[in-house]
Here is the input.
Amino acid sequence: MTAYPTVRMFIAGAWVETGEAGEMPVVNPATGAVIGHCPKASPAQLDAALKAAEDAFAAWSRTSGAERHAILRRAADLLRQRTPAIASVVTAEMGKPRAQGIGEITGSADVIDFLGEEAKRKGGRLIPARGNLLHVQMVTHEPVGPAVLLTPWNFPINLPAKKIAGALAAGCTAILKPAENTPASAQLLVECFVDAGVPAGVLNLVYGDPGPVSEHLITSSATRKVSFTGSTAVGKHLGALAARHMKRFTPELGGHAPVIVSKHADLERAVAMCAATKFRNAGQVCVSPTRFLVDKTIYDRFLAEFAARAGKLKVGDPGVDESVDMGPLAHARRIAAMEALVADAGGNRGEVVTGGSAIAGNGFFFQPTVIANPAADSRVMTEEPFGPIAAIVPYDTIEDAVRIANSLRYGLAAYAFSADLDEAHYLARALRAGMVGINQLIVSSPETPFGGIGDSGFGSEGGEEGYLAFTDTKLVMLAKAGG
Here is the structure.
């Protein structure tokens, strides 16, 4: 693989190797070996990044949309050119199979392109006046100000890219704080923006202990917007902190996506797509299909074929073998979490059909696992697994399936398979989620909004919403002097 880079922060237009608060190890989850060290920003270094973003905002917010687009377009092109090297780092830091890493990186370049184009398109609108036609009523979208971007490790390129591009396209400056176990991936992404010509202070990169760093950045008077992707528990805490200081907040939080498989579904296609998608990124995907609700007339067949496919997946170190289907979990804590979910579903509360155990040896590997008919109140049915565990449950009527699907406070993504057009439209309306896929498991593209409802958050990023999320709406009513 490409040599692991020296991890650096980027503050006020300068690369900084030394963290004044110390450093933390970066571990390859496939081997358990330390591959590098990540600097931890001190409060003074965080303040320097905040001041840089605040100072740079006035000039950057006044640049034309065409200029911002040109810089973002160059960043996207650089990201495409550097994909092979960046993919190696993504695999080393979080265990994503190389092909999946390449797909994430190239897709992120498309997201940057789209949001850069929005900088040229979003000019606001005119509203006809009710009275004097010489009066002008104009709505504009103004950049909200310096934004704090907080991202997790499971998509270490895509999630920062989406937030950075939305903020910069809208005319905001930004401070990115990525996950501490995938720092170099974020650094290589930021290098693309810097090399594309982003001015000093417009984009800053810091690392550190998540709690203290997030609180310091959010409570600063310089910060006007917070964008967070992560767990529901942390999102609620940060949301309360942002609200206390009257900061705009966009959270994209956890999910526990149901998949309804109707008796009218194309069964072969549904089971093939579900089994492949469930174990993508070792199930560490917020929109991962997790609760499979299958009509009782096809349940046994779906379960057998799904389990057979899961059992054939090749699990291993993607840094050594590019042909593996599934790599490791991110860290040892995820192994413990999977074991707890399986134990809770044991006995008369469900049947482990395949998998169910950690894989012995180095690294943090867990078997692709299928649990049949777990109890309705089991942890696997009520808590986001965020790992390679699938729960498969039979249902009697389509209304029962919808009731089960909507029974949780999560509402990020939901899916359904049905070849009956009326039923498909019913499911699209009835499923309670921010994103719904019918006869497909894809709910994200550069042009579409990405976000949930309930305990999965609010607001969207991606699509035109990814630009508007970093703006304030301003109404200007202009009358001729003298009436």
The longest strand covers residues 136-143.
